[in-house]
Design goal:
The chain is an alpha+beta fold. 48% of the residues lie in helices and 20% in strands.
C-alpha cells in the first residue's frame, strides 16, 4: 500500500492543514431553479480569495471556503447584486417537506382549474357555443396564473429585474401574453382569445416542478437523530451527594458520575475509575476502548462496563456532540446540485425566443400588406390560418403562438421524468435513490472514499480460527455469556454454530475491565482475555486480527483469532472501480495497522487511518477543491457529515439511521459492488436526459418558424407541446429496458 496517513483532530505541521481555510455557512433565499444557483455561485466565486463555493437549491444552504476571512457584508452584497438574499440563520430541516407539500398543492389547484377549461375550449372550438366563454377564460386564466403560478411569476421577475432569465421567464411571458388576448377580446378588439392556453402553460410547468420536488422530498431526520443521542440530565457529584440535574445547569469544572450502560453527557476528563467505552460514533469501530484516569471522554459515547467520575471541560455548543450536529447542518449545504442542461440552455434560448416573437409581431404589424398573400395561399391547406384579421390581430396571433410553442415544458420534464424512471430501476437492483441529483452525479465520480467497518468489512467481529478442543471452547463460551464485550458475543455465536451444546455450569465469574474475564468450572479457573505476551501472535495482529488467549489454572491452553471479515464482493468491486478509472480511498477511524492490512486485502492503494468525523469532511473537501467529484460510502454515525459533504453520499443499508438519512443513495443489501450499478444507471439516465433535451429542442426548431410566419395556431402549438412532453415521458420510461 503506497500511503497510510495518521490524522488527529489537530493536524501536525507535516500534515496537510485543512483547518487553514476559512469557512462560512449561510442561507440564500429566493432561488427557484438551477440557473439561480449558478448565478449565486458565479457571483460568490468572483470574491477575492474564494477557493470553494457550494449552494444547495433544495435546502437553501451555502458554504464558502476562502484563504482569508471574507466579511459577511461583502458576501451579502455579492448575492444581492444578482437578485437574492443572504441570511446567517440556516433554514429549518423541514424546508424540503414544506416545498413538496406546496408544489403538490399548487399542481392540484392548477389541474382543477385547467382541465375544465380545456374541456370547454375543445367544445367551443368544435362549434358548440359556450355562454360567457371569454369571461370563463379570463377568470380561469387569472386564477391559474396568479394563485398556483405566483411563484413562477416571482421567479421570472427576480431574473428579469437583474438582467438574466430562467425557465420561468418564458413560461410567464407566454402565459401572460396568452391571457392578455382574452382581456383584449373582452374590451372589443377583434382577436382570438387564448386564455385557456395560459392556464395550460402554467399547469404543465407546475407538473414538472412537482415531479422535481417529489424527487427531492425526503424527511431530513439526521439532525433529529443526533439530538436524540443527547442526554437531558447528568449525575452531578455535590457536597450533599450525587444529584441528578438538567444538563443546562452543569458548569465547567463540575464532577459527574457515569455508570455502566449510561451515555456520557458532557465532554471531560476521567478523574477516577476505569471503563470500557463504546466510541463507535467517533471512530466507527465496534470494539470498546479502555479508558482510565486523565483520559478524555466525549458526550454521546457509552460506558459499557465500569464506573467513572468525570471532570466537565466542555458544555453547551462546545461539546463534541453539539459540534457534530453543527457539522452535519453545515454539510447539508455542501451538496452541489446538478446544473440541469435545460436551465443552462435557457440562458440563451429564452432571450432568443422572446426576440423572435417580438420580431414576428412587429413585422406582421408593419408589413401586413406585404405578407398577407402568403397567408391566403396557406389558408387553402391549413384551415386555422387568419387571412383577413388585420395587422394588430395577426401580429398578436403570431407573437403569442411563438411564445407558446417555445415554452419549455418538455424541457422542464426532460430531467425529472428520466430521474423517476431511473429511481424505479434502481430500487429493483437494491439501490434506493433518495436524491434525484445523485443519479446524474454518479457518472462523474472519479474518487470514492469509503469507510472500513461495515463498508468493506461485515462490521461484526467473528471467530476465524482457534486451536482449542470442543470441551474447552464450550466452557469459555459459557463464561463469555456473562460479558457484554463484542468479542465475547463472537465467541458465543461461534460455539452455538459449531459445537454441540452440553450442560455446563460456571461457578464463579469476574470480569476485569480492559483485560478479560475469569470463570471457574469444576474447580478449574479459566482466563479469557488479552495475551500476556503478544509477540507469538504478531503476524495475526498485523493482519488486522484480534487474538484472545485462553488459560487454564494460569497455564496457556490456546488462542482464538477474531477478525472483522472482508465482504465477499469487496475485492472484485475495488478491482472494477479501478478499471473504470475511479480511485478508491479508505478513510477509517481504526488504527494504522488494521487499515493497512484491510486495504492490502481488498486492493486499495491509499488509506487514511485514525480519522475523526471532522477530518472525514475535510478530506472530502480537500479532493473537491482539487476538482475531483467525490463519492463517500459509509454506514456509521461518524460517516454522516462526510456523506452529506460529498458529491454523492452512499450508505450501506444495514448501517445506522443517521448514515442512511444523510446519504443520497442507499445500498439496501449492503453489497459494495452495487456502487457500480449506481454509476451505470447514472450513465444511461444522463444519456436519456440528453435525448429528451434534443427532441424538445428539435420540436422547437421546427415549430418556432411556423409560428412566426402565422400558420401555427396557439392551440395547435399547445397540443404539439403536449405531444412533445409525452414523447419525453415515453423516452424516459425506456430506461427500464436498458438496465
Amino acid at each position: 500500500m503506497s500511503e497510510v496517513k495518521e490524522k488527529s483532530l489537530e493536524p501536525s505541521n507535516s500534515q496537510e492543514k485543512f483547518a487553514q481555510n476559512n469557512k462560512v455557512s449561510f442561507s440564500v433565499q429566493g432561488m427557484t431553479c438551477a440557473t439561480c444557483v449558478k448565478n449565486v455561485e458565479r457571483a460568490l466565486k468572483k470574491l477575492d480569495g474564494v477557493k470553494y463555493v457550494s449552494v444547495n437549491l433544495a435546502t437553501e444552504k451555502a458554504v464558502l471556503i476562502s484563504q482569508e476571512a471574507i466579511p459577511m457584508n461583502k458576501i451579502k452584497k455579492a448575492v444581492s447584486d444578482v437578485g437574492y438574499k443572504v441570511s446567517e440563520e440556516m433554514p429549518t430541516e423541514d424546508l424540503t417537506e414544506k416545498r413538496f407539500k406546496e408544489s403538490r398543492k399548487d399542481m392540484y389547484i392548477s389541474l382543477g382549474i385547467t382541465i375544465p377549461l380545456m374541456i370547454l375550449m375543445i367544445l367551443n372550438m368544435s362549434g358548440l357555443h359556450i355562454p360567457f366563454m371569454l369571461l370563463i377564460e379570463l377568470i380561469g386564466g387569472a386564477a391559474t396564473i396568479f394563485i398556483p403560478g405566483r411563484k413562477t411569476l416571482k421567479s421570472a421577475w427576480i431574473a428579469l429585474s437583474h438582467l438574466h432569465t430562467n425557465m420561468d421567464t418564458l413560461v410567464s411571458l407566454g402565459a401572460i401574453s396568452a391571457w392578455a388576448t382574452t382581456v383584449l377580446a373582452i374590451i372589443g378588439l377583434d382577436i382570438l382569445s387564448f386564455g385557456t392556453i395560459a392556464s395550460m402553460l402554467i399547469t404543465l410547468n407546475l407538473v414538472g416542478r412537482y415531479i422535481e420536488a417529489r424527487m427531492k422530498h425526503s424527511a431530513s431526520r439526521e439532525i433529529k437523530l443526533l439530538l436524540s443521542m443527547k442526554v437531558d440530565k447528568a449525575n452531578v457529584i455535590t457536597d450533599e451527594g450525587v444529584v441528578e440535574l438538567p444538563i443546562e445547569t452543569v458548569k465547567i469544572g463540575d464532577l459527574i458520575l457515569v455508570r455502566q450502560g449510561e451515555k456520557i453527557p458532557l465532554d471531560g476528563t476521567i478523574v477516577e475509575g476505569q471503563a470500557s467505552i463504546n466510541e463507535s460514533m467517533i471512530s466507527g469501530e465496534p470494539l470498546p476502548v479502555l479508558k482510565g484516569e486523565k483520559d478524555p471522554v466525549v458526550s454521546g459515547t457509552i460506558v459499557e462496563s465500569g464506573l467513572l467520575k468525570i471532570k466537565v471541560e466542555k458544555v453547551g455548543q462546545d461539546t463534541f456532540l453539539n459540534q457534530m450536529i453543527k457539522l452535519v447542518e453545515e454539510a447539508q449545504s455542501s451538496k452541489v446540485p446538478i446544473q440541469a442542461l435545460a436551465d443552462r440552455i435557457t440562458l440563451y434560448f429564452i432571450p432568443t425566443v422572446f426576440s423572435l416573437a417580438v420580431l414576428s409581431g412587429v413585422l406582421w404589424f408593419f408589413q401586413y400588406e406585404t405578407f398577407q398573400p402568403f397567408l391566403v395561399n396557406f389558408s387553402n391547406i391549413i384551415p386555422w390560418v387568419l387571412t383577413d384579421a388585420g395587422p394588430l390581430s395577426t401580429a398578436i396571433f403570431s407573437f403569442v403562438a411563438t411564445l407558446v410553442i417555445a415554452c419549455p415544458c418538455a424541457l422542464g420534464l426532460a430531467t425529472p421524468m428520466a430521474l423517476v424512471a431511473a429511481s424505479s430501476v434502481s430500487a429493483k437492483k437494491g439501490l434506493i435513490i433518495k436524491n434525484g441529483e445523485a443519479i446524474q452525479t454518479a457518472k462523474d465520480i472519479d474518487t470514492i472514499l469509503m469507510d472500513k467497518t461495515g463498508t468493506l468489512t461485515k462490521g461484526q467481529p467473528s471467530v476465524i480460527k482457534h486451536n482449542l478442543d470442543d470441551e474447552t471452547f464450550l466452557i469459555i463460551s459459557e463464561i463469555e455469556k456473562n460479558s457484554t464485550h463484542p468479542l465475547a458475543k463472537a465467541i458465543v455465536e461461534y460455539a452455538s454454530e459449531h459445537i454441540k451444546n452440553q450442560n455446563v455450569e460456571i461457578e464463579e465469574i469476574e470480569e476485569i475491565t480492559g483485560e478479560g474475564i475469569v470463570g471457574t468450572y469444576k474447580n478449574n479457573e479459566y482466563y479469557i482475555g488479552k495475551p500476556r505476551d503478544a509477540k507469538p501472535y504478531q503476524e495475526f495482529m498485523e493482519n488486522a486480527e484480534t487474538v484472545i488467549e485462553v488459560s487454564k489454572n494460569e497455564k496457556i491452553v490456546g488462542y482464538i483469532r477474531i477478525a472483522d471479515a472482508i465482504k465477499s464482493d469487496a475485492v472484485e468491486a475495488i478491482k472494477r472501480l479501478k478499471e473504470m478509472g475511479i480511485e478508491p480511498i479508505m478513510v477509517t477511524g481504526d488504527n494504522e495497522n488494521t487499515a493497512r492490512a484491510v486495504a492490502k486485502k481488498v486492493g486499495i492503494d491509499k488509506a487514511f487511518a485514525n480519522i475523526s468525523p471532522k477530518n472525514k469532511v475535510e478530506i472530502v473537501r480537500k479532493y473537491q477543491i482539487e476538482g475531483k467529484k467525490v463519492g463517500m460510502i459509509g454506514d456509521g454515525i461518524n460517516d454522516a457529515a462526510a456523506l452529506k459533504s460529498s458529491d454523492m453520499g452512499i450508505a450501506i443499508g444495514n448501517g445506522t439511521d443517521l448514515a442512511i438519512e444523510s446519504a443520497d443513495v442507499i445500498i439496501s443489501q449492503g453489497e459494495i459492488s452495487k456502487v457500480i450499478d449506481a454509476i451505470k444507471i447514472s450513465e444511461i439516465t444522463f444519456k436519456k436526459i440528453k435525448q429528451n433535451l434534443f427532441w424538445a429542442f428539435f420540436y422547437n426548431i421546427i415549430a418556432i418558424p411556423l409560428a412566426m410566419i402565422g400558420i401555427l395556431h396557439p392551440a395547435i402549438a399547445e397540443i404539439a407541446m403536449l405531444f412533445s412532453s409525452i414523447n419525453v415521458i415515453y423516452n424516459s420510461s425506456r430506461i427500464t429496458k436498458k438496465l
